[in-house]
């Protein structure tokens, strides 16, 4: 069966343009409209009207689309689920949780079921397939995550790129010249997960701006493998290389935070005497990261904002008679409140400056 992306490819336009032709939410040239219509006719594509029909009455339910693999526990996902539920209840909505790893298919089932008025989407990819589903079905949704097409849907997110660049900049200002950036796992990067790519981009930008050497490596979920990888990278102090050993480790992988200090101890390193560790994306109040400089993930603020955006999208769709509303966004700045970084002491330096 043809999809909206197939129509867009044949017509030589973006999927959003096809959506705009269907719902009339933006002005489209006659030439473009005709190309889209020819592609629709050639492919036999029919926009789904059933979702609009099923949503003719309110359910007062929001769906939280949180793809996850069976058996994996993630405290970040759990915290978001609770805070989105609280925010939804405050606005008079119940919460329906869907965890299908088939992100587009799972959302399509929810949209066509008529069980929810709108959806909150997590685990956002840069080019997220669920955006096409939302456009095709005119199903209101908002994202916790910043897609490549920032005008596609309402979204909110921490400024991961700025957070990483800020961490590198603060470390460089404290005298650190050799750093390691522990990014999310390779599967997150291959899947083009937004927060992962933007964090890595920020680390590279911070390196260019400060002139510091920043080595990007990928995390792993297994604590033993993580300790081995960090030990191999940081533990051998005999071969320092031209630039010397890394004096700072920046950690973006949320699930790795709990294992970092244990891994450092296993590598024979003292924190912060031998190595300064900075965390990005920790949960507020997490006792395992309290003693380390960090940029916290504002979970409650993000959950409250995305819920408000999803409800507003549902209301706007009703008022517009089924036409999609303009996307609104909110990018949260990285807070420097907890980035208290100890200045690096070079060999032979008196800590009192004498």
Automatic annotation (TrEMBL):
Keywords: DNA-binding, Transcription, Transcription regulation. GO terms for molecular function: DNA-binding transcription factor activity; transcription cis-regulatory region binding. The keyword RNA-binding does not apply. InterPro entries: Cro/C1-type_HTH, HTH_LacI, LacI/GalR-like_sensor, Lambda_DNA-bd_dom_sf, Peripla_BP_I. It comes from the Bacteria. PROSITE patterns: HTH_CROC1, HTH_LACI_2. Residues 3-32 form the HTH cro/C1-type domain. Residues 2-56 form the HTH lacI-type domain. Pfam families: LacI (PF00356), Peripla_BP_3 (PF13377). Gene3D superfamilies: 3.40.50.2300, lambda repressor-like DNA-binding domains. The keyword Hydrolase does not apply. This is Transcriptional regulator.
């Amino acid at each position: 069966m043809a999809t909206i992306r197939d129509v867009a490819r044949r017509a030589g336009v973006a999927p959003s343009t096809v959506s705009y032709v269907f719902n009339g939410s933006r002005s489209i040239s006659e030439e473009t409209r005709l190309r889209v219509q020819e592609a629709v006719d050639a492919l036999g594509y029919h926009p789904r009207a059933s979702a609009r029909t099923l949503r003719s009455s309110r359910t007062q339910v929001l769906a939280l689309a949180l793809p996850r693999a069976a058996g994996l526990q993630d405290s970040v996902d759990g915290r978001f689920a609770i805070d989105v539920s609280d925010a939804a209840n405050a606005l008079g909505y119940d919460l329906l949780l869907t965890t299908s790893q088939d992100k587009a298919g799972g959302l399509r089932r929810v949209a066509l079921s008529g069980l929810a008025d709108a959806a909150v989407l997590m685990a956002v990819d840069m080019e997220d397939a669920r955006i096409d589903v939302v456009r095709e079905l005119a199903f209101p949704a908002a994202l916790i995550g910043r897609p490549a097409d920032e005008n596609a849907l309402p979204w909110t997110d921490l400024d991961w790129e700025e957070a990483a660049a800020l961490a590198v900049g603060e470390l460089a200002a404290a005298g650190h010249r050799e750093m390691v950036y522990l990014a999310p796992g390779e599967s997150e990067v291959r899947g083009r997960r937004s927060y992962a790519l933007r964090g890595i981009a920020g680390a590279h930008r911070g390196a260019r701006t400060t002139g510091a050497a920043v080595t990007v490596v990928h995390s792993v979920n297994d604590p033993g493998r993580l300790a081995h990888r960090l030990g191999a990278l940081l533990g051998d102090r005999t071969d320092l290389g031209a630039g010397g050993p890394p004096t700072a480790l920046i950690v973006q992988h949320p699930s790795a935070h709990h294992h970092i200090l244990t891994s450092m101890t296993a590598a024979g390193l003292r924190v912060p005497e031998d190595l300064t560790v900075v965390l990005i994306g920790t949960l507020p109040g997490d006792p395992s990261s309290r003693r380390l400089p960090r940029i916290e993930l504002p979970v409650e603020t993000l959950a409250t904002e995305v819920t408000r955006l999803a409800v507003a999208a549902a209301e706007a769709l009703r008022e517009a008679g089924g036409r999609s509303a303009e996307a609104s966004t909110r990018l949260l700045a990285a807070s420097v409140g907890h980035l208290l970084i100890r200045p690096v002491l070079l060999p032979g330096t008196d800590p009192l400056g004498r």
